[in-house]
């Protein structure tokens, strides 16, 4: 067992870090590692003896205070200590509040501890009075939080921050602008963004949903005559990818909307297909529906149930 920290090389320290926090989290914290360096780290980790708890703790402490920038120079080209909350500097006040809103008290306190006094008080004063008191108390006991937990919280919040609306969208652009921005994302990012928005601001999520059109919305909420037109104008080579993964009953219904000649020529694609191809072809239908709205043929807000209706 390795029990002497001083005998570890810089590469071994990085390998210990990988073993403690996991490769995925370590890779998100250490920017700029090449594939060759990652292979060296994996190889070093496999060849190392077991490491004592005290040595692991020392490595984590050294990592937090920047040993990687000194002993594994490629980890930070600017020679700066790596900090899991560095991303907070890029966020506006509105985004900082949205980031911690709905989080547990320790997470809020840990985040506020990274801010300068002025920003810290600005965010604190936005909190509910009871929560504000709890956060202030928690701020006084952060030295008891394990360093591994600090790093993990920083990484998770960093990931979450990438799905916060941009300033213009969040404070001024409105739900329609957010829906338009979502239209340019892939389906996975759209789903993750909407999930984050639902958790952080349910009312804004509800408003965005009034304008955010999906392929599933077209199938479930559009009138049949509109669906006949949209799917009828689609190339069969594209259509077979767009319907991949749908229930067979739904596929049969869509094919029945096609002109008779196209129905006779349609052949499903066999086997697994790229999700990218499915997303791309489904976007053709969504984009065609948006063209119809611009031409005044349909109103997407009405179809999605967001407009006031009279019985």
Question: What this model shows, in words?
Answer:
This protein is mostly helical and 311 residues long. The protein folds into 4 domains: 5-75, no CATH class; 86-161, Flagellar motor switch protein FliG, alpha-alpha superhelical domain (Annexin V, domain 1); 167-209, no CATH class; 215-303, Orthogonal Bundle (Annexin V, domain 1), CATH 1.10.220.30. 64% of the residues lie in helices and 0% in strands. The chain is built from 20 helices and no strands. Helix 1 (10-21) crosses helix 3. The radius of gyration is 26 Å and the shape is flat. The relative contact order is 0.07. Mean pLDDT is 78; it is low at 66-81, 167-173 and 307-311.
By CATH, the architecture of the largest domain is named Orthogonal Bundle
Distance between the termini: 76 Å
Give the rounded overall mean pLDDT. Answer: 78
Q: What's the CATH class of the largest domain, please?
A: Mainly Alpha
Shape: flat
Give the tally of structural domains.
4
Cα-atom Rg, whole angstroms?
26 Å
């Amino acid at each position: 067992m390795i029990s002497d920290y001083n005998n570890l090389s810089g590469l071994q320290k990085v390998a210990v870090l990988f073993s403690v926090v996991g490769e995925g989290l370590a890779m998100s914290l250490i920017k700029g590692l090449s594939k060759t360096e990652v292979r060296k780290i994996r190889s070093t980790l496999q060849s190392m003896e077991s490491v004592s708890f005290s040595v692991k703790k020392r490595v984590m402490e050294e990592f937090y205070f920047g040993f990687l920038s000194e002993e594994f120079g490629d980890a930070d080209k600017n020679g700066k200590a790596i900090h899991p909350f560095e991303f907070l500097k890029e966020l506006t006040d509105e985004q900082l509040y949205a980031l911690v809103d709905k989080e547990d008290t320790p997470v809020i306190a840990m985040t506020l501890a990274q801010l300068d006094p002025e920003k810290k008080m600005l965010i604190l004063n936005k909190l509910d009075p009871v929560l504000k008191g709890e956060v202030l108390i928690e701020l006084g006991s952060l030295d008891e939080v394990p360093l591994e937990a600090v790093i993990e919280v920083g990484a998770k919040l960093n990931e979450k921050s990438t799905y916060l609306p941009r300033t213009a969208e969040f404070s001024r652009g409105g739900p329609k602008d957010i829906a338009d921005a979502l239209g340019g994302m892939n389906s996975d990012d759209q789903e993750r963004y909407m999930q984050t928005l639902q958790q952080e601001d349910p009312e804004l999520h509800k408003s965005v949903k009034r304008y955010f059109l999906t392929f599933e919305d077209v199938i479930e909420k559009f009138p049949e005559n509109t669906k006949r037109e949209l799917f009828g104008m689609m190339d069969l080579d594209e259509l077979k990818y767009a319907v991949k993964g749908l229930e067979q009953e739904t596929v049969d219904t869509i094919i029945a909307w096609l002109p008779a000649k196209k129905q006779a020529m349609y052949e499903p694609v066999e086997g697994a297909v790229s999700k990218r191809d499915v997303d791309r072809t489904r976007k053709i239908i969504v984009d065609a529906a948006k063209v119809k709205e611009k031409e005044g043929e349909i109103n997407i807000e009405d179809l999605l149930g967001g407009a006031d209706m009279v019985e």
